[in-house]
Design a protein that fits this description.
- The complex is a heterodimer of chains A (about 140) and B (about 200).
- Chain A has about 140 residues and is an alpha+beta fold.
- Chain A has a single domain, classed as Signal recognition particle alu RNA binding heterodimer, srp9/1.
- Chain A contains five helices and four strands, in the order βαβααββαα.
- Chain A has a four-stranded mixed beta sheet with strand order 1-4-3-2, covered by helices on one side.
- In chain A, helix 1 packs parallel to helix 4.
- The longest helix of chain A is centred in the C-terminal third of the chain and has 19 residues.
- Chain A is extended.
- Chain B has about 200 residues and is α+β, with helices and mostly antiparallel strands.
- Chain B has a domain of about 80 residues: Signal recognition particle alu RNA binding heterodimer, srp9/1 (2-Layer Sandwich), CATH 3.30.720.
- Chain B has a four-stranded mixed beta sheet with strand order 1-4-3-2.
- Chain B starts with a strand and ends with a helix.
- Classes of the chains: A alpha+beta (about 140), B alpha+beta (about 200).
- Chains A and B meet through helix 1, strand 2, helix 3, helix 4 and helix 5 of A and helix 1, strand 2, helix 3, strand 3 and helix 4 of B.
- Chain A: Belongs to the SRP14 family.
- Chain A: Pfam families: SRP14.
- Chain A: This is Signal recognition particle subunit SRP14.
- Chain A: Component of the signal recognition particle (SRP) complex, a ribonucleoprotein complex that mediates the cotranslational targeting of secretory and membrane proteins to the endoplasmic reticulum (ER).
């Protein structure tokens, strides 16, 4: 299955939808992976035989700007595919990293609604302690 | 596997790994949710496995429960896991959270990591660029040295006041004033304290 390489804006739209559908499900996940885009290595075993050269090449790579690949999927496996597998990706150009992550933070914050809200537990604790205090006073 | 206690620790460790292996290191963010019904099923299964009786759904109403029960409606629970993984060395750094307040910070961390991955150089600190560059002073000849001493005696207009002048400005009178202020403050505090004591006696 080829993964869809989308523009940044399309990626955010799809990601928002993916978050919304996942939160409605009984059990759902969203996997987001980011890595540097490197040309496909056809013989990984060959390169493993020369570890010293590899590390040096890696260090040189760290200095040269290149695009970062971001993948998103719902992780639906072939064996247990009740839901359709969703898989898409986008490329972040080096000069657009900051703008991308500002938008990314917005989408994630609005999408991850099932996470714990701020101070919910603390408020409950306060209420509980107040209730016990008042009971103690009345008794 | 290193499990980071804070997002900052996760960022520091991840940046080190990215620096070492920028080609292969990847960061996976997993957001997984569970519905309350599934959670109930799972706990029931777990209890059955342990051989414990399942808790009855209708219990005798105890005083504190009715106040807390309506405030916590049954919602999906979720957790967010960030994993930095390098398949070549097998290094893994992990951070797990359940709170939404961490999301903004964590996306910031991801952005910072993406800069490392993409080889985007971080902007140099503005403070450093604005700082005046110290001009190299030539080694003074004996005559120039005398001149330097003479200049040093004359107070410069633009330069900040020397330490001796700073100490001298408040003067002995100023110190006294400060002491008086302190005494006044202490007196007022004492008066308040007395007032409180009276209240306590009543």
């Amino acid at each position: 299955m080829h993964q869809q390489l989308l523009s940044n804006e399309e990626f955010f739209q799809k990601l928002g939808l993916l978050f919304a559908t996942t939160t409605k499900q009984e059990l759902g996940s969203v996997f987001l992976t980011q890595k540097r885009l490197t040309p496909y290595d056809q013989n990984p075993e060959k390169s493993d035989t020369k570890p010293q050269e590899d590390t040096l090449a890696d260090l040189a790579l760290a200095e040269t700007p290149g695009p970062v690949l971001v993948r998103a999927t719902n992780g639906a496996s072939k064996q247990n595919r009740d839901t359709k597998k969703i898989k898409f990706s986008t490329l972040i150009e080096p000069d657009a990293v900051d703008a991308f992550y500002v938008r990314y933070a917005e989408v994630c914050k609005s999408g991850m609604t099932a996470l714990k809200k701020k101070n919910r537990r603390r408020k409950n604790k306060k209420k509980a302690s107040k209730a016990t205090k008042t009971e103690g006073a009345s008794a | 596997m290193h499990i980071s206690p804070t997002p900052q620790d996760f960022l520091d460790q991840s940046l080190l790994l990215i620096q070492a292996r920028p080609k292969t290191t990847r960061i996976t963010t997993t957001y997984s949710t569970t519905s309350p019904s599934l959670r109930a099923k799972k706990t029931a299964l777990w209890l059955a496995k342990k051989g414990k009786p399942t808790p009855p759904t209708t219990t005798t109403i105890s005083p504190p429960t009715p106040t807390t029960a309506p405030t916590t409606p049954q919602q999906h629970t979720a957790h967010l896991t960030l994993k930095t993984y390098d398949p070549v060395s097998g290094t893994t750094i992990q951070f797990v959270t359940r709170e939404i307040r961490d999301v903004g910070r964590l996306v910031g961390v991801l952005g910072r990591a993406a800069r490392g991955m993409g080889g985007v150089k971080t902007q140099p600190d503005t403070v450093m660029s604005d700082a005046p560059v110290p001009t190299p002073t030539p080694t003074p000849t004996p005559n120039q040295a005398v001149l330097h001493v003479a200049e040093a005696d004359v107070p410069r207009v633009g330069s900040p006041a020397p330490t001796a002048a700073r100490i001298g400005t408040p003067g002995p009178g100023g110190e006294k004033q400060q002491q008086q202020h302190q005494q006044q403050a202490g007196g007022s505090g004492g008066a308040q304290g007395k007032g409180k004591k009276k209240k306590g006696k009543k």
